[in-house]
Model the fold of this input.
Amino acid sequence: MTQNKLLEIYNKWNKFSFGKRLFSWFFAQMAPYFKTIKPLVQELRPGFCQVLIKKRKIVQNHIGTMHVIAICNGLEMAMGAVAEASIPSHLRWIPKGMSLDYTAKAGTDIRCIADISDQEWVEGDFKVPVKALDENDVVVVQGHIMLWVSKKPEKKA
Done:
């Protein structure tokens, strides 16, 4: 698999002490709603992405835990990054749905993970397993995001 543009940028910027923060800001510009969680892409490679969301007042709910919609936003960002970093160049994807279980209160910073390292890309429905873990490695949200994968249209001359 050849390295794509997103991975090239991540790996190039990751060499700098502020590179992960810069890349996270850059990637969040692609879907501006991602900026609301101030994400930090901690790791990105083909098949795997981990995004950190810090527990701040703006992402908390009325009981002082991380709001599940903020976590869903982080999971969607991790899924988008792993999809872009992994999909073969002749295919394209679009989110089709999300199925998640809220399994525990999220009282700390949260790591959002999308892991498709053991999957082959196929046209049609493509499930991306996602999970969110707290600082004690307790799973607070888990499930999958369904993508619709299709061939890119041929370019006309």
Remarks:
- The chain has a mean pLDDT of 94.
- Helices lie at 5-13, 19-30, 68-86.
- The CA atoms of residues 98 and 123 lie 18 Å apart.
